[in-house]
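Morning. Coffee machine broken again, so started the prediction first thing and wrote up yesterday's gels while waiting. Chain of 404 residues, entered below exactly as on the submission form.
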Amino acid sequence: ASYRTALALAYQSFGVVYGDLSTSPLYVFKSSFSGELRLREDDDEILGVLSFIFWTFTLIPLVKYVFFVLTADDSGEGGTFALYSLLCRHANLSLLPNQQALDAQVSTYNAGRARESGLSCSIKSLFEKRYKFRVGLLLVVLLGTSMVIGDGVLTPTISVLSAVQGIQIRATNLHDRYIVVIACVILVALFALQHFGTRNVAFMFAPIVIAWLICISGIGVYNIIRWNPKVFRAISPFYMYNLLSKTKKAGWESLGGIVLCITGAEAMFADLGHFSRFSIKIAFAGFIYPCLILAYMGEAAYLSKHPQDIQRSFYMSVPEAVFWPVFIVATLAAVVGSQAVISATFSIINQCSALSCFPRVKVVHTSNQIFGQIYIPEVNWILMCLCLTVTIGFKDTNMIGHAY
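Came back before lunch.
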């Protein structure tokens, strides 16, 4: 029964946790080459960028989150404040008025003392003795939390805009303002669905993400075989060094676009309370990771032969026969992609409110089985207004990417 539950949660996680991460191919290459970096005939630039994407995506979501960060939950909850709470259980670091020493006794967390190394004891003692260090730690926690919430504003905007802009490839006369209007309508519909709860939203959204991943991985394989089977060379870290040594400043600036390949990775930990550690791990390692790697490699293979299409690389790499089905799935996936950071924001705000770092808000528990599945109406509508403001204000995914 536990395995069936884990598989069911893994299925649901596609629609909540991984939507954002899965839609990154819509804009990563475009953003990476939005500055001075340009594609040339020798493939060094595209292979260098692909190598950075591969290793960034491997080291952070796969190695860092799957093997390390997900093990640091606080009674099943994830996120920045969960880590802070966990630290406070093992050391006298707390500056929050409602987090007293007796909290550990009523927690479901197993507070058994682990063997501590000399270095960890020294660091622990340093923070416990110096008040300024503890203040600094709390400020870092608040800053990290604020950045994740900021991600909840920027990610829905860039995902939906990137997907909707694909229609301009076929409808070339469609003005940008109509794209913005369509994106705003989609965003309003997305936030209007939130009151149904994580479980219902996840069951609606999961098939879309799975269909999207199958589409982009299949297109990736097609592009690799047709355009450049040698694109697998980018697995070598040499191409990262080669890119930076050859392009200098332009290569360094492109890293701002490359990092967009891991937008939404923080949701793997922040949304932990909505699912389980095992379900998130098997969904990512077994399906998300290979599909996205194939998608990035396929897009790079296409760009190695069509450098002029860089600003619309994803949709231009889609075979014409399947363009419209892929466009529809991409638009739906972009909507789903926003769900990851929205759910993460609900969890983080709930933790902040419980620790008196945020005003008290109405928290609606939407599941009888998973305690962490919640909905916060006030936060939902504030996020919607902020997303609409960013969409109308920026209008361009490159600008939003730079802001990110």
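Confidence is low (pLDDT under 50) at residues 98-111. Going to sketch it on the whiteboard this afternoon.
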